[in-house]
Amino acid sequence: MTEPGRLEPGAARGRGLGKLVLCGEHAVVYGHPALAVAVDRCTTVTLSRDLGAPPVEGEPRLAEALSRVVEPDVAVRIDSDLPIGRGMGSSAALAVALVRARAALQGEPPPGAEVVFERAMPVERVFHGNPSGIDVAVSSRGGLIRYQRPPGRSPTLTHLPAPRWRIVVLDSGQVGDTAELVAQVASRRPGIDDALDRIGALADHAGDCLDDLPALGALLNDNHELLRRIGVSTPDLDALVRLARDAGAYGAKLAGAGGGGVVLALVADPEPLLRLAADRGVAAFECRPAPEEPR
Ligand code: MEV
């Protein structure tokens, strides 16, 4: 994880974890369950009133997101080892890190998970439009989570015991715009509702076979096919999924909103896939599940 260095006096810091959706993205927006796991990559935000605030450059939504949490005179430094806009929860990790850093700057005791969730969701909405909340929940709580937000109700989340999975992430190098992809999926309903129902059922089934890697891998493969069906995969992502299966992965799927971003592969041994990816010039790295955060 990132090591942003020594904390200057008067500065405050917060961290948010990255995540991978194991099963259930997009369907989770419509009340179906999904499983997501926090990973050993994160974003750290350092806030200071003493340094003067340099202008924030880059992605226009970033300035808008920061303005939801910090005053204009607060300097913001962001350190991250998460690939941005690739389905690994970079915006949720930023939101959670910002909220925690802001509480620390105000001298508040560290806010609990529910408070972090409430405060971070408006920031996440700046990037994602209509997020289900799964990314923020996992980023702030760590571990493996079954998440469900029935329409018009508060989300329910359950921590599941996270097995010692070996996960390889293959990066397409392309950015997927979650807000746009969620809107595209919405526009294809109700024609794709049967596929969304099947994704939800599959996420439930996956929760029952977390230790059975061949069975779980087969479900990941099925989930990828259904994500193709709802139109969020790309030829590059499909090729990365095939690459992972050629290297002997139990299963592989796009992870996150799609339209670019990453593929996750569940493997017995990361080396063959990492070697094959290097041979083909594909950026790849191993990700380990991050444990549940202390409450
Ligand atoms: C993004 O990680 C997961 C989506 O289902 C959007 C969301 O649930 O907010 C695509």
Describe the structure.
The protein has 295 residues and is of the alpha+beta class. It is 38% helix and 22% strand. The chain contains nine helices and nine strands. It has helices at 60-67, 90-105, 113-128, 134-141, 178-188, 193-207, 213-229, 235-246, 270-279; strands at 11-23, 34-48, 75-80, 144-148, 156-160, 166-171, 251-255, 262-267, 283-287. Strands 1, 2, 3, 4 and 5 form a five-stranded antiparallel β-sheet that branches. A hairpin with a 6-residue loop joins strand 7 (251-255) and strand 8 (262-267). Helix 2 (90-105) crosses helix 4. The radius of gyration is 19 Å and the shape is globular. The chain starts with 10 loop residues before the first strand and ends in an 8-residue tail after the last strand. The structure holds (R)-mevalonate (MEV). (R)-mevalonate is lined by residues 21, 25-26, 28-29, 87, 128, 131-132, 134-135, 178, 182, 256-257.
Backbone structural class: alpha+beta
- Total E-strand runs: 9
User: Assembly type of the shown chains?
Assistant: single chain
Give the biggest sheet.
Answer: 5 strands, antiparallel
Q: What is the ordering of alpha helices and beta strands?
A: EEHEHHHEEEHHHHEEHE
User: Ligands in the structure?
Assistant: (R)-mevalonate
Number of helices: 9
Helix-residue proportion: 25-40%
Structure summarized in a few sentences:
Helices cover 38% and strands 22% of the residues.
Compile the SSE list and pairings.
Blueprint: E1 11-23, E2 34-48, H1 60-67, E3 75-80, H2 90-105, H3 113-128, H4 134-141, E4 144-148, E5 156-160, E6 166-171, H5 178-188, H6 193-207, H7 213-229, H8 235-246, E7 251-255, E8 262-267, H9 270-279, E9 283-287
Antiparallel strand pairs: 1-2, 2-3, 2-4, 4-5, 6-8, 6-9, 7-8
Helix pairs in contact: 1-3, 2-3, 2-4, 3-4, 6-7
The structure holds (R)-mevalonate (MEV).
(R)-mevalonate is lined by residues 21, 25-26, 28-29, 87, 128, 131-132, 134-135, 178, 182, 256-257.
